[in-house]
Amino acid sequence: MPAQGWLTYSTLSKKTNIKKLDTSLALDKIRQDDQYLYEYKRNVAKGVYDPQASFIIDDVNDVSHYSSQENSSTKPEIS
For residue 57, how many other CB atoms are within 10 A of its CB? Predict the structure, then answer.
């Protein structure tokens, strides 16, 4: 799934304590947060149908209308 506006650092030089990810742990984390199907306003304005699916960070409303665990202090156990 394409991401717009994300900066990712996948280079080894920026990482430490590297361990193989338990895929069930990853799926459990994804399932904890609500994900939404949506379209980008600029695509709709152009008449382009390109639905996306991901989490929503509510940067519009004072009280978020979308559920997210992003501010949770609970960190998953990584083995």
Answer: 10
Question: pLDDT tens across 41-53, in order?
Answer: 999 999 999 999 8
Q: Return d(Cα 32, Cα 68) in angstroms, integer.
A: 8
Compute the Cα dihedral for 58, 64, 68, 71 and give only its sign.
positive
Neighbour tally for 55: CB within 10 Å: 14
- Cβ contact 5:64 at 8 Å: no
User: Rounded to whole angstroms, how far apart are CA atoms 72 and 69?
Assistant: 5
C-beta of residue 55 within 8 angstroms of C-beta of residue 68: yes
